[in-house]
Amino acid sequence: MVNIIDLQGKRILITGAASGIGRETAVITSRLGATVCLVDLSEMGLQETFSLLVGEGHEYKVMDLTDLSAIAPYIKSVTENNRLHGL
């Protein structure tokens, strides 16, 4: 099977990354070549997801996305030195 999706050089932020669909999305996205930024409430789950990722440069942040005042500063920090290509 030929992979028509190439995410090499892309940086993707994935919410809900500690389990379920978010975790699977993070793993697949890393396998497709992206650097991923993981966000969730569960540090233990984020660490487990992080250990499953392929490649380098990934990061994670324990964060409550219902705290709207925290979102803008986090996005600013994520994009400060690197471009964000998707969410």
Total strand count, please? 3
- The Cα radius of gyration reads 13 Å
H/E element sequence: EHEHEH
Q: Indicate the low-confidence ranges by residue numbers.
A: none
**Strand order, largest beta sheet:** 1-2-3
> Which whole number gives the mean pLDDT?
93
* Helical stretch tally: 3
Distance between the termini: 26 Å
Task: Please describe the biggest sheet, giving its number of strands, its sense, and whether it closes into a barrel.
Answer: 3 strands, parallel
Structural class, please? alpha/beta
Q: What is the share of helical residues?
A: 25-40%
Tertiary shape: globular
| Beta-strand residue percentage | 15-25%
What features would you describe in this structure?
With 87 residues, the chain is α/β, with parallel strands linked by helices. Helices cover 39% and strands 17% of the residues. The protein is built from three helices and three strands; from the N terminus they run βαβαβα. Strands 1-2-3 form a three-stranded parallel β-sheet, covered by helices on one side. Helix 2 links the parallel strand 2 (35-40) and strand 3 (59-62). 24% of the residues are buried.
Describe what is shown at a glance.
The protein is 39% helix and 17% strand. With 87 residues, the protein is an alpha/beta fold.
Brief descriptors of the model:
87 residues, alpha/beta, three-stranded parallel sheet, 3 helices, 39% helix, globular
Task: Write the topology of this structure.
Layout: E1 11-15, H1 20-31, E2 35-40, H2 43-52, E3 59-62, H3 68-79
